[in-house]
From TrEMBL:
<comment type="similarity">
    <text>Belongs to the 5'-AMP-activated protein kinase beta subunit family.</text>
</comment>
<feature type="compositionally biased region" description="Basic and acidic residues">
    <location>
        <begin position="7"/>
        <end position="21"/>
    </location>
</feature>
<dbReference type="Pfam" id="PF04739">
    <property type="entry name" value="AMPKBI"/>
</dbReference>
<dbReference type="InterPro" id="IPR043554">
    <property type="entry name" value="KINB"/>
</dbReference>
<dbReference type="InterPro" id="IPR006828">
    <property type="entry name" value="ASC_dom"/>
</dbReference>
<dbReference type="InterPro" id="IPR037256">
    <property type="entry name" value="ASC_dom_sf"/>
</dbReference>
<dbReference type="InterPro" id="IPR013783">
    <property type="entry name" value="Ig-like_fold"/>
</dbReference>
<feature type="region of interest" description="Disordered">
    <location>
        <begin position="1"/>
        <end position="39"/>
    </location>
</feature>
<feature type="domain" description="Association with the SNF1 complex (ASC)">
    <location>
        <begin position="167"/>
        <end position="255"/>
    </location>
</feature>
<protein>
    <recommendedName>
        <fullName>Association with the SNF1 complex (ASC) domain-containing protein</fullName>
    </recommendedName>
</protein>
<dbReference type="InterPro" id="IPR014756">
    <property type="entry name" value="Ig_E-set"/>
</dbReference>
<dbReference type="GO" id="GO:0005737">
    <property type="term" value="C:cytoplasm"/>
</dbReference>
<dbReference type="InterPro" id="IPR032640">
    <property type="entry name" value="AMPK1_CBM"/>
</dbReference>
<dbReference type="Pfam" id="PF16561">
    <property type="entry name" value="AMPK1_CBM"/>
</dbReference>
Length: 269
């Protein structure tokens, strides 16, 4: 194997890459700002332990690969129109542009970033833009860039929530007493109360254009007698439904025949 020399590809004049190169942002403010993670850390080792472990990389896993930094999925979204939208930022020192996927009227991309503070900007149809609805800041060249702060995910401690739960009710609060005589003193109703809501017993409306109330489903297909308002006839009615229409049929039966039979019985006596 021989030594190989890598050459960077120089873009040609007039190409799209040359157009974006002239429109590139100013020098990046540098590596993203970092802070200590939000999880408990081990105490600082003694001086002799530090000197003995100095220069040794952090390895983990079966294959002893170097430990990788924890990354957090971050959604970057552009919602201000355009045909082709890209994003470039300090997460890779302003070196690459990544296109956003269009979904309806929005453009989104999901990036895996370690905890820190990052600046980024959108390229919408070849023009640099920032989202006014997202946090923004000025860089060293007084350019406005969007900024995002990525926090390390810390799972909730469910054991700590148990102290706020109400205490369980005592077993003595659950009982089943034996019914007493007062529970049987009142007679049950002869008919459920909702079965009295028949149209025969609705008061007549004063307005001729008034609409009857919509019957309840529990009174359908039952025969009802009207309350004793008409002494000359027996009035019965039933309500049926066909799709969304309700039909109430009212039948009148005269009471004269009953009176004739009563008179005949008196004469025979």
């Amino acid at each position: 194997m021989g030594n190989t020399t890598s050459h960077k590809h120089e873009p040609t004049v007039g190409s799209d890459h040359d157009h974006y190169r002239h429109a590139s942002p100013p020098i990046s403010p540098g590596s993203p700002l970092t802070y200590s993670p939000q999880i408990p850390m081990e105490p600082i080792s003694r001086a002799e332990e530090v000197s003995s472990n100095r220069g040794a990389p952090d390895f983990h896993g079966v294959a002893c690969w170097p430990a990788q930094p924890k990354v957090v999925p971050v959604v970057i979204q552009w919602s201000h129109g355009g045909t082709h939208v890209e994003v470039e930022g300090s997460f890779d020192n302003w070196t690459t542009r990544q296109p956003l996927q269009k979904s309806g009227k929005d453009f989104t991309i999901i990036k895996l970033l370690p905890p820190g503070v990052y600046q980024y900007k959108f390229i919408v149809d070849g023009e640099w833009k920032y989202d006014p609805n997202q946090p923004a800041m000025y860089d060293e060249m007084q350019n406005v860039n969007n900024v995002i702060e990525v926090h390390e995910y810390v799972p909730e401690n469910l054991e700590g929530v148990s102290g706020f739960e109400p205490p369980p009710s005592p077993p003595s609060s659950y009982n089943c007493p034996t019914p007493v005589a007062d529970d049987y003193a009142k007679e049950p109703p002869a008919m459920p109360a909702h079965l009295q809501l028949t149209l025969l017993n609705v008061p007549p409306a004063l307005d001729a254009q008034a609409v009857l109330p919509r019957p309840q489903h529990v009174i359908l297909n039952h025969v009802y007698c009207q309350r004793g308002q008409n002494v000359q006839a027996l009035v019965v009615g039933t309500t049926t439904r066909y799709k969304s229409k309700y039909i109430t049929t009212v039948m009148y039966k005269p009471k004269a025949r009953r009176r004739v039979l009563e008179n005949n019985n008196l004469r025979s006596d």
